[in-house]
Write a structure and sequence with these properties.
- This protein has two helices and no strands.
């Protein structure tokens, strides 16, 4: 029973890592730290919502 929840939760770790990587490589170079963090927060929420 617990494995079902683990396998449902586990991909969210990769979503978060990919979102952070994109923030550091793409957004941060063009917008700066604060704006990149804000964009990343919005995209992270959107990606998690799509996944869920």
């Amino acid at each position: 029973m617990m494995s079902k929840y683990f396998f449902a939760w586990f991909p969210m770790v990769f979503i978060a890592i990919i979102n952070g990587t994109i923030r550091e490589v793409v957004y941060k170079t063009f917008t700066g730290d604060l704006t990149a963090h804000q964009i990343s927060t919005v995209t992270g929420i959107a990606l998690f919502a799509i996944y869920m």
